[in-house]
Write a structure and sequence with these properties.
Length: about 210
């Protein structure tokens, strides 16, 4: 990376914090998606100098714990976007950075819906009910990192980045896990409403 690029990135760490409504669910997802897009290499036919950071993605993909991910500069950039100024949320932002590094293509379908049974046919589910139960009981940041990294791998690197960000940042909440289960069964409209109005809980995620 050039010195100029490094200086730009350092400046971003101090200035990339989201403004006013960024604690809202859709804003947090959008901020995470913008961060993810900034790291993606140019696709075939596009300007090869159009941005991206393959080296950063490679480093984050090698992270197996939130501490390893937290040591990366790009995680600090993501935290400034989605952390809401809460330093205690840094560990979950690090988990998110490590997981999103494995996403190679953004989708519009909610990730839980995309891996669940389609049109009522349980045989079409990419994620088995056994694996769903294991995912729903994942706790602790390293366990959550591993679980969602496997989920992204199961989908071949495709995922709804904004949806995945909102899920991971709030996975410590029971109502968020419940909504994931409802979405898996294509019954999201029947799921109980999430209690916090801002989408992203101010509760400290479990370590």
């Amino acid at each position: 990376m050039s010195e100029a690029s490094a200086n730009t990135a350092e400046a971003q760490i101090g200035t990339a914090a989201p403004k006013n409504g960024a604690t809202k669910k859709n804003a947090i997802g959008d901020e995470a998606r913008k961060w993810w897009e900034s790291l993606q290499p140019a696709k075939s036919g596009e300007d090869a100098n159009g941005g991206g950071n393959r080296a950063a993605l490679a480093k984050l993909r090698r992270c197996s714990t939130w501490i390893e991910a937290a040591a990366e500069r790009e995680t600090a950039l993501l935290f400034r976007r989605v952390g809401s100024g809460n330093e205690q949320r840094l560990c979950r932002a690090a988990v998110l950075a490590a997981v999103l590094a494995h996403v190679r293509e953004n989708e519009t379908t909610k990730i839980a819906s995309s891996v669940g049974p389609q049109k009522g046919d349980e045989a079409t589910a990419q994620l088995s009910q056994l694996r769903l139960r294991r995912l729903l009981t994942a706790s602790g940041d390293d366990e959550i990192l591993t679980a969602f990294r496997r989920l992204v791998a199961l989908k071949g690197g495709k995922a709804n980045v904004a949806d995945l960000a909102e899920i991971i940042l709030n996975w410590h909440r029971e109502d968020r896990r419940m909504r994931f289960a409802f979405d898996y069964w294509q019954a999201g409209e029947a799921a109980p409403r999430e209690t916090p109005k801002d989408g992203a809980s101010n509760e400290t995620p479990a370590a």
